[in-house]
């Protein structure tokens, strides 16, 4: 059997909880946590005779999402009732969108191993969340706090071909949502949930294979692992003459396996119909235009601008634009020291290295952007060497303080004064006659030895360029 005879096809459905304060059709709070059923009212519990009122901010957020995914925004999209029975859905139907979603036909771009990828977006629609069933022994309790919290479901085309691509796509969508400030992107608390649809087919086949849907995966690493497992499971099935059954599966991260949850064969008939209580969604073109004019710069655009204006490589630009906070930090450092090249390596290597070690986010960095910018200015104007700067940076990171204070109080200033350096160089030449003889007989490699000695005597504080020039002069 050969896995390489097959290709996999993946499509993702991402549910993003909109970060509005109140629910989609009532004024109940959307806050996570809270006592059971605390945030409920007759409207979000679906009592007969109540009337929903649309949360205008949720619509604005959904339009922002649609625009950021390069979708067409429909001006007259409608809410539809999706009818089914389940204890966590007290109305007996979920208000969602069916025929005309708020946004459709878009595209997301990102980089995968340095290569640019595009994934088509089928649609993005608004819907309300359901409550949560809690199973305890023989009984089941229901908490409706989440009932009617606004969500946008982003459905991709079935076009991704590897688990890595799917995970990167999901990361990109999350980063876009965070840039927009419309969703907190918290996978663990369920404010972003991913369903992964997976199928396999023989490489030359035109038709898509039968898919399974992996529900609610709550980390990017698990997206990758669950899809990988599922691809292999499906190929094994086909190779042993079996069929893939269309079904919903759960990923068990402890066992790294997917398990059947429910079969999809008796395809639900949800009997969608336009919700008579809610007519067209208010998204006239002037509103869409206004929202469009206020859209923030998104990760891909920002990365492109960084490449152009700061001569950053596309890999570095990608790292720097992963979050809005990171990009802002970088730009603040640059504007402080006007040394983009130094700023790139210091932010990516030194700062992110330390933040990773101490498990901090950039927003929690003990060294602020202007403090780092000031440190880099000291390198730029020759006050300290890059090497000394690393020591200073460690002190700033661990104990606080400004770069200049630390440099002055610890006497770390670079020695650039010719007469001071010449004195040391002469001392080195005098005490090492053998090496001088070697150098003069053509062994140029010994030059490094002299540089090293000068650095040692100056505790690394000698200006390296000056040392090179002066040494050459004195040795010739
Ligand atoms: P449903 O609403 O029943 O989940 P959709 O047709 O809306 O079904 O598809 C949902 C997701 O499944 C989409 O992201 C789509 O890209 C993906 N998908 C559909 N068919 C396949 C397939 N054969 N293989 C992989 N993914 C698929
Ligand atoms: Mg689905
Ligand atoms: Zn309510």
Question: Can you characterise this structure?
Answer:
The protein is of the alpha+beta class and 476 residues long. The chain has helices at residues 56-68, 163-180, 220-239, 285-293, 299-310, 314-320, 324-337, 340-357, 369-380, 386-399, 403-409, 418-431, 433-440, 446-457, 464-475; strands at residues 6-17, 72-73, 80-83, 93-96, 103-112, 115-128, 132-136, 139-143, 150-156, 192-202, 212-217, 247-252, 257-263, 273-274. It folds into 3 domains: 3-291, no CATH class; 297-409, no CATH class; 418-475, Orthogonal Bundle (Arc Repressor Mutant, subunit A). The strands form 3 sheets. The chain has a 9-stranded mixed beta sheet with strand order 2-5-6-9-1-10-11-12-13. The chain is elongated and about 95 Å long. The protein binds adenosine-5'-diphosphate, magnesium ion and zinc ion (ZN). Adenosine-5'-diphosphate (ADP) binds next to strand 1, strand 9 and strand 10.
